[in-house]
Amino acid sequence: MSLPAFPAPRTGCPFDPAPAYTEVREGPGIVEAGMWNGTTAWVVTRYDDVRAILADRRFSADGTRPGFLQFAPGVNPQVSTFIRMDDPEHARLRRMLARKFTVRSAESMRPEIQRITDEHVDRLLETGPPADLVTGLALPVPSLVISRLLGVPFDEAEFFQASTRKIMSWASSGEEAMGALVELGTYLSGLADRKAADPGDDVISALVTEYESTGELTRQQLVLMAVLLLIAGHETTAGTIALGIAALTRHPGQLAALRADPSLVPGAVEEVLRYASVVQSGLSRIVTEEVEICGRRLKEGDNVILYLPAANRDEKVYPNAAAFDIHREGPKHLGFGFGSHQCLGMSLARVEIQVAIRTVVQRIPTLAPAKPLQDLPFRHEMFVYGLHELPITW
Ligand code: HEM
């Protein structure tokens, strides 16, 4: 019997998870799926199970374990850094970046993020209506913020958008994705040399001067960490901004409430993170000893995909979960994961999304969609969901 292929298509409302996984969540909770290369994985769909697995050491994130899930041809789980490691090595490397990713550091970047966002909104207002909110705001702003954080000169930031896109697409061949990764790595190593000679107040300078110089970090690890930050922080934030604004324009009452009362913005952003759940590749883990989930016995070496879009719509946790509701209260969503690997950049992402949504809502008071929902190009083929284009008018 052939297994259903992962990922199942999002054939329903484009904001909703693939209907097949909603059915699994309401039914058995877990389903075995076939991957592109003939391997299999268990897709876990319920909020409580996903959260429990992310806090359970019997599920490893170590990409060097034999048989660790390979999502797509170009994605080699062995060529990665701490996101694909277990503690203590994971914690040792993650700690080197922690200082730059606290709530306080993220807040200290808010004025700069506001400035970058305002510049992009100025340009949208000068050239439109209509305008594309993805190329005009959602993609360039997070890219510039990470570039600034890493110490990448602004005029070199364009290059990242192209490279991350090649690395992050199910549509890229193995060679294309690997080629883009190598190109990005070579660039970042060159940048680390420049920072060693002339350090600044940025992440790459800190890694070079504090850790590479003492032998605690190899150049290869440094480059992989920088690549991780670029990849993890760019399209995720962009996709969330685009889907958030798209959802708001489809809910004019909530849009008006947000405009009237900006103190609602942080709560609205949490709802966008839950509702959009952009990490549609799910999170992957490998089983290290026999364990039972939803009545199924998983054995050592089995791969597990924690499908966040379905978990964040779990009716047992969020009443009327399919509704977009900026006033929603309740448990924390799993959009940033959970446990020791929970998103390192979540405070920064929150500031970026809050600033983007607040600024667009305030500065474009007559904001409206320029195309019907069914004509929007959703990023079905990418690991990170979102929109290729979001035409707006005012
Ligand atoms: C809306 C935006 C974002 C979303 C939805 C998101 C989501 C996630 C999720 C679900 C994980 C957990 C991965 C796992 O357990 O396997 C994660 C990890 C991570 N994220 Fe984010 N992320 C976002 C933005 C960012 C930003 C802005 C950065 C940094 C610039 C970042 C850096 C990281 C890093 C370094 C990890 C690995 C943490 C670890 O393994 O200890 N992310 N992210």
Can you give the helix content as a percent range? Answer: 40-55%
Structural class, by secondary structure, is alpha+beta
Query: Under the CATH scheme, which class?
Result: Mainly Alpha
Number of strands: 10
What is the CA–CA distance across the termini? 53 Å
Query: Order of strands in the sheet with the most strands?
Result: 1-2-8-5-3
- Rg, please? 21 Å
Give the overall shape.
globular
Question: Could you give the order of the helices and strands?
Answer: HEEHEHHHEHHHHHHHHEEEEHHEE
The name of the CATH superfamily reads Cytochrome P450
Identify low-pLDDT runs. Answer: none
Quick one: biggest sheet? 5 strands, mixed
SS field, number of helical segments = 15
What is the subunit arrangement here? single chain
Q: Kindly identify the CATH topology.
A: Cytochrome p450
CATH architecture: Orthogonal Bundle
What's the domain count? 1
Mean pLDDT: 93
Q: What portion of residues belong to β-strands?
A: 5-15%
Ligands: protoporphyrin IX containing FE
Function: Involved in the coupling of aromatic side chains of the heptapeptide of vancomycin.
Family: Belongs to the cytochrome P450 family.
Pathway: Antibiotic biosynthesis; vancomycin biosynthesis
Protein name: Cytochrome P450
